[in-house]
Amino acid sequence: MTHINTENYCFCELAPLYALDLLDEREQIWVEQKLAECPELAEELAEYQSAVTAIAYDTPHVPIAIDLKNRLFARLELDNPEPQAVDHPIPDSPFFAVRSQELNWQPHDTPGVSIAIIHTDEVKREIIGVFRAEAGVYYPIHRHAAIEEIYLLSGDLVVDNQVYGPGDYIRSEPGSVHSPHTNSGCMFFFHTSMDDEYPQRIPSLVTSN
Q1: Strand, helix or coil at 67?
Q2: Percent of the chain surpassing pLDDT 90
Q3: How far apart are CA 137 and CA 75, in angstroms?
Q4: Residue 107 CB coordination number (10 Å)
Q5: Would the pTM count as exceeding 0.70?
Q6: Cα–Cα distance between 144 and 159 in angstroms, integer?
Q7: CA 198, CA 185: separation in Å to the nearest integer?
Q8: Neighbour-count burial of 53, counting CB atoms closer than 10 A to its CB (0-12 exposed, 13-18 middle, 19+ buried)
Q9: DSSP states of 80-114 as a string?
Q10: Which residue from 108, 208, 189, 202 is spatially nearest to 149, judged by alpha carbons?
Q11: Tens of pLDDT along 56-84?
Q12: Which of 25, 106, 136, 186 could bridge 182 with an S-S bond, Cβ 3.0-4.6 Å?
């Protein structure tokens, strides 16, 4: 049996194969460990994944050559392990949905705020969910580690002295800092990073009477 020395692995060489889902389980685990150790590599991987998803859906289906992986590894001068049987669970559906009544609302550290997490991605360090705040809530000042996206569903949200309402989209760039608040209460869909920084927790910023 051929053994691969992980010291020979290179992220820049395996990342394209990871995006194409051409790695075996051990190689996938190695790539994901590297992403966890160096989050900045996620941007490089995202570029490969974007290139893969950009492939036109209407192009004729061309089966992948059986020896493609062997040829790729030979070109990269890497040992190719013997294939191992891996059980991959088949999803019940290609879609995922959560009904509004199924949202699992949890209280937040900030009084008057509750959050329903819909999806987390430990590799990309992303959180997707729904945020709900009572009238008068001030959210703690924080710095964004990556892009944050907000789509306001109801109520109002004040960000940098700008008042936003239902249907408004707000995008915050990495490194931006703010402390939004709501006058009448609000609810919005969000997509943000798990690594946002909260340099100060200000207990006095709570729901007004």
Answers
A1: coil
A2: 33
A3: 58
A4: 10
A5: no
A6: 14
A7: 22
A8: exposed
A9: PPPP-----PPPS-S-----GGG--EEE-SSTTEE
A10: 189
A11: 544 555 566 666 667 777 777 666 555 55
A12: 186
Contact assessment for residue 26 and residue 4, using Cβ atoms and an 8 Å cutoff: yes
Q: Residues 30, 11: contact at Cβ < 8 Å?
A: no
In the chain, what is the greatest distance between 2 CA atoms, to the nearest angstrom? 70
Please report, as a single letter, which amino acid is at residue 104: N
Question: Between these two residues, 110 and 11, which has the higher pLDDT value?
Answer: 110
Q: Convert the pLDDT of each residue in 18-71 to its tens digit.
A: 877 788 888 888 888 888 888 888 888 888 777 766 655 445 555 666 666 677
pLDDT at 61: 54
**Helical spans, DSSP H, in the chain:** 11-19, 25-37, 41-53, 68-75
